[in-house]
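chain and backbone:
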Amino acid sequence: MAQVRSKARPFAITMAAFEPHLNRGAIRVIAMNLFGKKPQNQNVVPSPCVDICALDDNDICIGCFRSGDEISDWGAMSDDEKKNTLLKVRERRQAK
């Protein structure tokens, strides 16, 4: 049996069991945030999250203007994918 190297790993396993819609990247980011760990790459594209998490009838968050899929995939996206998502966010915000 493999050794658990951090507090975040048991949390991620538990989170995966109760939140199957979240991908591994999203769970890792949540665990890092909860346990106060910073990502190793300090030049990451910042999340547009503003801690107002509610999806409207079109599956768009009323806080950050990302779709439900974009929110759950954020942790696994490449920097280019995140930048493209931020362009969509800007367009949605301006259209409102």
